[in-house]
Design goal:
With 421 residues, the chain is an alpha/beta fold. 45% of the residues lie in helices and 14% in strands. The chain has a ten-stranded mixed beta sheet.
């Protein structure tokens, strides 16, 4: 297939194998050139660099090397994904449909066919970028940092906190719908990102949607939490320990099998929809956790009744998380009126009392508190944070975890380790 040869030829010419991981290209996307892709992948893993094109040409007679391919990587990768969709459609019609037509009843066959076509259609109609897999793009992030410097500019996923993990009976269970609520500008994005970072460090693949922040902003927060690099200096390219940071980025390479895929405003030109999330999960079966940083920022369908549309979004998310057996964390901002009601609460020293929102501080749709299996609320002020369990399967609703928070250096820790069983 010419398209497969063009993509692999460009990879060899530009010594840039990691870009295939960036666009989630894998063995299953190749037909005639699959052995060539697997050889290049194994070579990069063993020797740490992309092989010379002459090495590959000499080993594979069927490889039609195409020098100086002018098309861009995004175009080639998306075209290959489109070709895969067409191939799956052909296989569905020629093989599976013929077999099932003979063995299934009429209604059963129609329902099966509609579901299969719908899944293929979702992938085909996804017009967004495939996101950025920060588990493998250490080289790209080195370029980000250098650019900043020049311009100055399994079943349960553990939580980052030992007590919370214990209170939740082992952490976040795969297939569950989880909700994190907080008032605006309290640090809920930091908390949600730390949940994802901890999941990835424990061997779980993560899909992280952040419709509000940019790709770099999201990734730098992740790095700050993971490596405790000064977030302000990181964004400016002025780290005091930049040699250590650059060595840290070397660990993000092809040896990391579990993905951490970030999709931000650059990747979501038409907004974040439930259909897009399902298509991404179909394309990335090694993802076990989904983070949606901003329920309000999702596209909730057409029509003037926003409340009903949000209800439908919440219900569909619950179904998708269960169907694909992923822990789905939805981050939601509580209403301004609820925050206003709690304003002015101070202790004897005149300091604002840190109070996580209550279960009733939801907005727009009651489905937001009906659908999740676990609901956590968070509040923070002057480095003092609290997470409250507002809903859970375990008999620990109402327990509050005290935290010490230093977001700029990525430290969010339990204030105490008291056993509260």
């Amino acid at each position: 297939m010419l398209l497969e040869s063009q993509l692999l030829s460009k990879v060899l010419d530009e010594k840039n194998f990691f870009v295939t991981k960036q666009f989630n290209i894998n063995e299953s996307d190749f037909g005639t050139q699959r052995p060539v892709y697997e050889f290049i992948k194994d070579y990069v893993r063993e020797y740490g660099e992309t092989p010379d094109y002459r090495t590959v040409v000499g080993k594979f007679e069927q490889f039609d090397y195409q020098p100086e391919v002018s098309d861009t990587f995004p175009y080639l990768c998306k075209s290959l994904k489109s070709a895969v969709t067409k191939r799956k459609s052909f296989e569905l019609l020629q093989k599976e449909a013929t077999k099932n037509f003979k063995t299934m009843g009429g209604t059963e066959f129609i329902n099966w066919m509609a579901n299969e076509v719908h899944q293929i259609q979702q992938v085909a109609n996804s017009a967004t970028s495939t996101g950025t897999n920060i588990a493998v793009n250490g080289l790209e992030r080195k370029d980000w940092y250098k650019d900043n410097k020049e311009k100055r500019s399994y079943t349960f996923i553990p939580t980052p906190y030992q007590s919370l993990t214990r209170w939740l009976g082992g952490g976040f269970e795969l297939g569950d719908y989880l909700l994190l609520m907080a008032f605006t500008n309290r640090g809920k994005t930091w908390i949600g990102t730390q949940f994802g970072q901890t999941a990835w460090r424990n061997g779980f693949g993560v899909m992280h949607y952040s419709p509000e922040l940019s790709k770099k902003q999201t990734t730098y927060r992740w790095e700050t939490l993971d490596g405790h690099y000064n977030n302000v200096d990181l964004r400016r390219g002025q780290l005091d320990n930049e040699d250590e940071y650059l060595e840290y980025l070397d660990t993000f390479n092809e040896n990391n099998e579990n993905p951490y895929i970030v999709k931000t405003m650059e990747d979501l030109p038409d907004g974040l929809t439930v259909d897009l999330i399902e298509a991404d999960l179909q394309m990335n079966p090694n993802v076990q956790m989904v983070i949606i940083d901003g329920f309000n920022l999702m596209v909730h369908g057409k029509g003037n009744n926003l409340r009903n549309n949000m209800t439908m979004t919440s219900r569909r998310l619950r179904q998708i998380f269960g169907r694909y057996q992923v822990a789905g964390l939805v981050i939601h901002q509580t209403t301004g009126s609820s925050e206003k009601d709690k304003a002015g609460d101070e202790d004897d020293d005149g300091l604002r009392i840190v109070k996580p929102p209550k279960l009733t501080d939801y907005s727009e749709s009651i489905a937001l508190i009906q659908d999740p299996a676990t609901i956590l609320t968070f509040d923070q002020h002057d480095g003092v944070g609290k997470i409250s369990i507002e809903k859970a399967r375990e008999p620990n609703v109402g327990k509050v975890l005290d935290l010490n928070c230093n977001f700029n250096y990525g430290y969010i820790r339990e204030a105490t380790a008291v056993d509260q069983f």
